[in-house]
Design brief:
Layout: H1 2-11, H2 19-41, H3 47-57, H4 61-107, H5 110-136, H6 144-169, H7 177-196, H8 202-223, H9 229-232, H10 235-272
Length: 273
């Protein structure tokens, strides 16, 4: 076992003698001792052979230590972030409710000050949704659909405060149009996310989003009298035409690519002959 211990110490030579190194050495020594006992029970008792087997099974002890240290630091950082999130959330909601009470008492506008409280909650949910999307985007593919749902939630939670301000404070006409703008924003944001993660079905989602976006735009422009209703409906068949054009272009490019590939293969066969 002396050769094995020398191998471990040599592999970790030059590293600072901190708690990580101490914990790793303790773990690796226990593992090696247990493994050596297993091998000995098979009938191998020669120290040299035993050392060679153990060292072959642990070829990169320094690399294992770095992974061990990174895992501990990652877990510690995650725990620290959770504590900060909980503390920050408590401070945010406490401050939000305190400001709500102060504004309501000073202005005596209780029938409107609730908007401030609701808007704060919606913006908090939107922020947390975006933070969750950024965290999940680094994980495996099974989290991607959940990330897309969170993007929609964040857009909606940005839309609600704008709607409340337009409807109850600014008293604008047709404040509900904000949600049709939000639908378009959701589709655009999801499309960008699909491109960012290189989703192989992104083009199909893009095509599927064109018509809903056109319908939302038709309602917005018609209600705001930007385009008359009698003309604006043309946006819908125009969106279908855009889909057909995109599909035709993609099919054409695909066929041209296959033709070039076949010609290249034919040239190779000719040269080979």
């Amino acid at each position: 076992m002396k050769d094995i211990m020398d191998y471990v110490n040599t592999s970790l030579e030059g590293l600072p003698e901190d708690k990580y190194l101490y914990a790793f050495k303790k773990r690796i020594v226990n593992e090696i001792t247990a493994r050596a006992n297993e091998i000995t029970h098979t009938g191998i008792t020669d120290e040299k052979v035993l050392s060679d087997i153990i060292m072959s099974q642990y070829p990169d002890i320094r690399g294992e230590f770095e992974k061990f240290r990174d895992d501990i630091e990652s877990k510690r950082n995650a725990k620290s972030r959770r504590r900060k999130t909980i503390l920050g959330s408590a401070v945010f909601f406490g401050g939000l409710f305190l400001v709500f009470l102060l504004v309501s008492i000073i202005t005596k506008n209780w029938h409107r000050s609730w908007i401030f409280l609701v808007n704060g909650i919606c913006l908090y949910v939107a922020y947390m949704s975006i933070a969750a999307v950024m965290a999940l985007s680094e994980k495996e593919g099974r989290f991607k659909p959940f990330s897309r749902a969170l993007i929609a939630v964040s857009v909606f939670n940005f839309a609600v405060p704008i709607f409340l301000i337009c409807a109850f404070l600014l008293r604008l006409r047709h404040p509900w149009l904000i949600f049709f703008f939000a639908i378009i924003a959701m589709l655009v944001a999801d499309g960008i996310f699909l491109e960012k993660i290189n989703n192989r079905f992104a083009i199909f989602f893009h095509l599927a989003y064109i018509v809903p976006a056109a319908v939302s735009l038709y309602i917005i422009t018609g209600t705001m009298r930007i385009i008359p209703w009698s003309i604006g409906w043309l946006l819908i068949p125009a969106s279908l035409l855009v889909i057909l054009i995109i599909v035709a272009v993609r099919v054409s490019k695909h066929n041209n690519g296959n033709k070039e590939f076949e010609e290249t293969e034919g040239d190779r066969e000719w040269n080979a002959d």
